[in-house]
Amino acid sequence: MNNTKRPYHHGKLRQALVDMAVTVAEETGKDIISVREVARRLGVSSGAPFRHFPNRESLMTAVAEEATMRLRLRVERDLLAAPPEPLARLKTLGRSFIQWALHNPTQFKLVSSRRLFEFDSSASLPVHFDAVRQITLKLVTQAQEAGELPTGPLPEFALALRALAYGLARMQVDGQLPQWQVDVNQAEATLISSLNLIVDGLRPVRPHPK
Amino acid sequence: MNNTKRPYHHGKLRQALVDMAVTVAEETGKDIISVREVARRLGVSSGAPFRHFPNRESLMTAVAEEATMRLRLRVERDLLAAPPEPLARLKTLGRSFIQWALHNPTQFKLVSSRRLFEFDSSASLPVHFDAVRQITLKLVTQAQEAGELPTGPLPEFALALRALAYGLARMQVDGQLPQWQVDVNQAEATLISSLNLIVDGLRPVRPHPK
DNA sequence: ACCTGAACACCGTTCAAGT
DNA sequence: ACCTGAACACCGTTCAAGT
């Protein structure tokens, strides 16, 4: 409850801008936020944000960096509690990805569509993105070696499984699921069971030894 | 070559607006177009478009309607030339979907993200969308009955396969494939082989009779 | 019937001036 | 060092006036 008059210097404006941008985005459901509105809500002038970010794109880059890092942390944390079998871990990965997307829909749209920032301009974005990708590659390889998945070229297989999780999550955040007759209250469960249906349907030509 | 002075009445402004909106969108790669720029390019005043569309959203709805219809026609046309086996037809469907997306990336982003129009406000959008969905449902059912796919609840299975094609296409149009080490010149082939890898890896528990 | 163009309330961004 | 606030060049949208 700070009801003293706002000081001339905000003090932590940079981080406050990033946080408020996330708040506004998730509130409105639009990944394209107005810099002026963010400034207004923080009680600073319309020019203040440009002391910390050269333009809106660079503010959105900062938002995307934090969001991508949180997704990575979520995935890594969930894997700590996952069973040891590679295929089960792969399903955990997919579930974490989908759950994060559904609980942070606007941030998910922002980071995945990449419309509002330059992915390669960031030092951390590619790092966090690749961390999740490397986990995917490793688990697919292990599942193939364990005979839990068909053989097949690693990059394409991992890409396809990621695309499956990505596509399911995006259909929800894009609002397509009602047209697929998915009950809006069971979207998350339906998406995860759809994912598992595919992963469990993938079988090596020779059943792996029990 | 009409170099006479532009008449006061454009004559076919409505359709010209829709066509120019598509042109501007695919040229700039941004699905959010400026109504003023569309008007400018057509040599009409900034207010003219609002004689034909109450707002930008309704112009984008018209663009999305045409794009969705073209996708539907593309899919239906390709299936006419496809082999009779349900699974082969399902792969054809996925290939058509991906190819259309990659050749019309901005229209694909527009219709799939649904950010710029109200899907349910259109009479034709749901019709064309559902036509493609019904084809998917039919082919999955037939493939399951033919023993070419594992059994499993129809809606989730069809949803997952659509999500797979959607996710692959979107990863490309969102610019994510470079991070998956996909050669930009072979993106289409890589996506289609990724799709087929999954579809061919799906096997019923008991191999279907030859 | 259809289009013009000024007007309004917004943006993102710049920059001299303030603290 | 950091913030203000007027200014500029844009938007989407409205509407009286023109053809």
Task: Please characterize this protein's 3D structure.
2 copies of one chain form a homodimer. Chain A has 210 residues and is mainly α. Chain A contains 8 helices and no strands. Chain A starts with 12 loop residues before the first helix and ends in a 9-residue tail after the last helix. At the A-B interface, helix 5, helix 6, helix 7 and helix 8 of A face helix 5, helix 6, helix 7 and helix 8 of B. Chain A binds a DNA duplex (19 and 19 nucleotides) through residues 8-11, 13, 34-36, 44-48, 50-52, 54-56.
- Ranges of chain A where pLDDT stays below 50 over 5 or more residues in a row are 1-5
Termini gap of chain A: 63 Å
Q: Tell me the major beta sheet of chain A.
A: none
Q: What value does the Rg of chain A take, in angstroms? A: 20 Å
Could you tell me the CATH topology label of the largest domain in chain A: Tetracycline Repressor, domain 2
The coarse silhouette of chain A is elongated
